[in-house]
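Hi C.,

You asked whether I'd gotten around to modeling the 406-residue construct. I have! Everything is below, sequence then structure, no commentary in between.
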Amino acid sequence: MSELEIPESWAECRLENVVEFLDSKRRPLAANLRIHGPYPYYGANGLQGYHNAYIFDEPLILLAEDGGHFGSKTKDIAYRIEGKTWVNNHAHVLRTIPIFNSSFLLHYLRRYNVKPFVTGSTVPKLNQEKSRQIPISIPPLAEQRRIVTKIESTFKRIEAIEKAVERAEVLSRKMALAFLKTDGDVQSTVGDSYSERIERCKNGGQGLRRVGVSNEHGVVDLRIADDVNTTRYKLVQKGDIFYNPMRLNVGSLALYDGNEQAITSPDYVVVKPRGIECSWLLYSFLKSEAGLKEIAKKTKGSVRERVYFKSLSEIEFPILTQQSNTAARRSFETFTQMLNGFGLAKQQFKAINSSVLSLAFSGRLVPQDPSEGTGHQLLEQILTAKTNSDSTKAPSPRAKKRKSLK
């Protein structure tokens, strides 16, 4: 049964009734065996790289088999592929039957809670036998199309906000680099203007935000179990830059702009300005191509490529005047307000997005129209078409062999 109550005019079937599994055609290919080419190579969670050959050449839906974001409310477990592609054995390959809307099925599966069908604790796996049993709700085809239109119009708004955020962040860093290029006349090092914050969390961090770093999202909240001793965790204050020393070489660092103190992992490096320096400038430099090249020089030859503050402090970085730092800080505050506004809008739309999916697949997003028939009628057509399709397929060599043994 579906997780949601559905209208009486809708029907329900299993995933295997509306798709053909093409898993037997997929092939895993180790990274060292791929020859770079024009064809996308896909796995459980999307694009994994490119290859010079392809297996499929049609619109298909991929459903994660193992390593998928099972149970996530924000990440998809199904996505669409088109054209010439190669798929490994970590994703089920689904061809939707012609009389069912493939876009409707894709949106239905994207965030579907498959946990009851998942096996394995170390590496959760949604095998083919289990995935075939996933219940699928069936509204009439015309209603499916209206639902898809409504869902995709909401998704487009979120995508527009995400693109606006990306453009604003790029513009922000470009402006910071412009300050350094225009006003940074005196060459010095990072260590001349910044030092390492080594203060530890003495009171257990009660009431303090716990933060980490994501290369994609910057500052993120850390999940720390209640029984973990946080007295060694480092303090982070507004204007500090902090990073995992093993990931700085890929640009994974964050600028903390919270008004309240926070704490972060004892393994992280926390950098604070010595005086009037605007940390936005150093942060933008380290995220830039030029900054990453300087970081690479400090990690070259290192066994685990760690970059501690001593190495960071030796990187050349200009000193700006008080006037330039003040102007840079004002610009940063303007961009921060804009990005915060975008972030709030994005959160609101994501909440709307979740509710839209819930409404869509419980029959409450668009009105039902009795003149369009029912899902039960469509299900009869689906089962008939599926039966006819299966009966016209030539038996496999293995099937022929079993038959001859009887």
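If it helps when you're writing up: Residues 117 and 131 are 7 Å apart (CA to CA).

Thanks,
B.
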